[in-house]
Amino acid sequence: MRTKLLLSFLIGFLFMSCTNKEYEQKIAGKWKTVNWEVEQSGEKLDGQMNFTFENDGTYTLDYGSKIENGKFWITDDVLHTQAEGGVEIIVRITQLTEDSLGFQMNRGGTIEVVDLAREK
Known about the structure:
Blueprint: H1 2-27, E1 29-38, E2 50-53, E3 58-62, E4 67-75, E5 78-83, E6 88-96, E7 100-107, E8 110-118
């Protein structure tokens, strides 16, 4: 019984690892902000949050007035980013397709929704 449980855990872990790699490959590329809003009120937020995710696990984030570089990884439906010399930031991925990326983030206790489109 214990062996079956351990084997099930290991298979599940390997499956999750493959899925995360697939997400990381799918997210690679350039993404442009098309919508940024406060979830509860629907208030539109100005600004940009344009990402470039590389296959080597690094990213560049262009805020318009500031550029950030760092590393990223994905676990389950969570995108982790860590800027050079910065702290880890996590956001929940709500959508990831060939052409669109969506996530929710908690900024100062307020949930914000960001929708991005792949640049071609």
